[in-house]
Amino acid sequence: MNKSNKTELATSLSDKFSKAKVALFADYKGLSASQADDLRRKLRTADAEVKVLKNNIARLITKDGKFGTDAKNLMDGVVGPTLVAFAYKDIASAAKIFHKFSQDNEALKLKSSLMGDKAISPSDIEALASLPSREVLLAKMLGSMNAPVSNFVGVLAAVPRSFVTVLQAVADKKQA
Question: Regarding the domain with residue range 3-131, which homologous superfamily does it belong to in the CATH classification?
């Protein structure tokens, strides 16, 4: 790889690291090409992309501390073949896909990763994978925001209902 290709790759990786909300790292040694394509296809549905990381170039772009000290320390410790999934929107769904794929394929082993400028462990990735989807979380939040209004309307409706019930009881008593 010549110097211009390396600079182009470094610029591309730097852009991906800065845009991504999470960068999930894994050792992919032993993963077949069809399995890697399957992972790429699945992650594309979560607005994420998979790249094979050139460790030396990753060390070079994190050396200056632009992405934080955690990124620099993580890149200094990365050895061997590394696959990275950059998630740009919904990090929980990307983590779910990545984690499930690593469970189904023993060749893919999760490594410490980056969320923003903070390092996260493989167990943190599992915790992210256990989160509900964005839509479910939004629905729960909307339900929580709507509950006080619904309860207030219920209380307001109970007053006239109770009044009508009392009037009906009085009317029934007078008829009897």
Answer: Ribosomal protein L10, N-terminal RNA-binding domain (3.30.70.1730)
Q: How far apart are CA 117 and CA 113, in angstroms?
A: 10
Q: List the domain boundaries for the chain.
A: 3-131, 132-176
pLDDT tens-place string over residues 64-104: 767 777 887 888 777 788 888 999 988 888 999 999 999 99
- What backbone torsions phi and psi does residue 132 show, to the nearest 5 degrees? -65, 165
Beta strands in 9-165, from DSSP E residues, in sequence order: 22-27, 48-53, 82-87, 109-110, 113-115, 118-120
In the numeric block, the tokens 């960068």 are attached to: 23
Alpha helices by DSSP H, 78-133 = 91-104, 122-129
pTM of this structure: 0.72
